[in-house]
Amino acid sequence: WRHRTAWLIAAYLAVQSWQFYSSLAWIAPSYVARGWDPTTAGYLLSAFSGAQLVSGLLGPMLTDKIHDHRTLLVPAAGLALVAMLGLLLAPDAAAWVWVCVLGLGQGAGFSLAIVLLVDYAQTPAGSGRLTAMTFFVSYTIASLGPTVMGGLRDLTGNFRMLWLLVALMTLIQMALAMQLKPGLAKVP
Predict the structure, then answer these.
(1) Whole-angstrom Cα distance, residue 158 to residue 153?
(2) What is the DSSP code (8-state) at residue 186?
(3) 153/148 Cα distance (integer angstroms)
(4) Measuring CA to CA, which residue among 103, 94, 91, 101 is closest to residue 32?
(5) Other C-beta atoms within 10 Å of 95: how many?
(6) Measuring CA to CA, which residue among 117, 107, 115 is closest to residue 47?
(7) Rounded to an integer, what distance in angstroms lies between the CA atom of residue 48 and that of residue 99?
(8) Per-residue pLDDT tens over the stretch 53-103
């Protein structure tokens, strides 16, 4: 609880998970609101999930060769940012592309965060403690995401502010990722 690295990882995972759960909750409804058939909007969510599977498996494999995690974390957040901006600025221009790119960014961002829980711990027991603390903090915060974003949607009457806020959160994710350098103190 008193370790800076633990709090940095928890903050990264909280922001990443907030975005994920908000996207999961609001992609399909945002397209239904645009006039899409609910089934087709649901298929968008399937494409989002499929893309996550691909990058979620690929991301950790790359950490065996790339030891500076920033090299992977920042581009993963960049993919999510591009997709969020697409959902915000041109949602009908390439909906399938936006959700797949978002899935690639979100899947890699999460799976790489899981690697951090091992790489920034001194021992297996330390990894367990780091994981417990990080998951407790980050998922508690992220669990509020869909509800807060839904409230924002209700206040504004559309999904534009929702996607804008989630896009801005990817900038926070990038800033946090940039701090996850190889020389950080490991959690005992």
Answers:
(1) 5
(2) P
(3) 9
(4) 91
(5) 21
(6) 107
(7) 5
(8) 999 999 888 988 888 999 999 999 999 999 999 999 999 999 999 999 999
